Design the sequence.
């Protein structure tokens, strides 16, 4: 039996996979409800402490940009939130809509409403995009979704995102350009309807035109799902010229050392990170 693990949902291509029971997260309809809460998070990788006490709150509808130089711990935080088992939480908590998910496996977090878009999406030969999304959406909703229902939703979102319908029959990420892979991640985010999306270096390797297309796709998903909370991991301000963040967080040496509005990204673009060390 072949297993495919995407940015947010583990999918069995044939047969079914028994999943752990997932407590239903608190679903507050109040404006500004916290989607992601991180409390004093410490994370180790291969015995080395990478995150050294991170606190962060992302509320409904907010887009937070997490910035910092290479090796500062940004991708470690993204993977720890999503439940990558290689990233061990030594202390602290991760809460999704008030529910402590720190000990949940990655697939349980995904089914509860987390989504992680990879910096380098994997190629999955032999698995068409449409088939993958049907399995992933079924796992997310906890019920088998018909081919027709997925097809209709897929075509609607591909039209919204300006994607060629033939894209649905191609094998997942196989032969895709960098821009196509990133647009496919945004398509997955749209279809899976998460409460929280973590976009890890979505701008990596994209030229200006591809970056604008991806940014417009993110904005379209936000327009349709205004309560979606987003944590956008990036090195550069370039994507923030296309996406207006509500908050900018700066990470250095495993800690968030400064937080501010969009003007903080502009300052970093001018002055760099050295003054914050």
Sequence:
């Amino acid at each position: 039996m072949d297993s495919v693990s995407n940015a947010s949902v583990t999918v069995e291509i044939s047969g079914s996979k028994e999943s752990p029971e997932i407590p239903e997260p608190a679903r507050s309809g109040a404006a500004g409800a916290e989607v992601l809460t991180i409390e004093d998070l410490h994370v180790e990788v291969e015995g080395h402490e990478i995150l050294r006490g991170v606190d962060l709150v992302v509320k409904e509808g907010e887009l937070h940009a997490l910035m910092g130089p290479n090796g500062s711990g940004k991708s470690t935080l993204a993977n720890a939130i999503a439940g990558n088992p290689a990233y061990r939480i030594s202390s602290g908590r991760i809460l999704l809509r008030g529910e402590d998910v720190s000990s949940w496996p990655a697939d349980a977090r995904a089914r509860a409403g987390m989504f992680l878009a990879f910096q380098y999406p994997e190629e999955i030969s032999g698995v068409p995009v449409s088939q993958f999304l049907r399995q992933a959406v079924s796992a997310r909703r906890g019920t088998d979704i018909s081919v027709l229902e997925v097809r209709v939703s897929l075509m609607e979102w591909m039209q919204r995102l300006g994607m060629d319908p033939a894209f649905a029959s191609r094998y997942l990420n196989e032969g895709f350009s960098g821009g196509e892979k990133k647009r496919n991640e945004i398509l997955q985010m749209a279809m899976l309807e998460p409460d929280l999306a973590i976009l890890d270096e979505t701008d990596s390797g994209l030229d200006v035109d591809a970056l604008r297309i991806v940014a417009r796709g993110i904005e379209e998903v936000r327009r349709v799902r205004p309560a979606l909370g987003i944590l956008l991991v990036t090195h550069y301000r370039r994507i923030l010229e296309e996406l207006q963040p509500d908050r900018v967080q700066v990470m250095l040496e495993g800690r968030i050392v400064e937080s501010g509005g969009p003007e903080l990204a502009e300052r970093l673009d001018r002055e760099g990170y050295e003054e914050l060390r």
Remarks:
- The chain has one domain: 3-13+33-276.
- The longest strand covers residues 34-45.
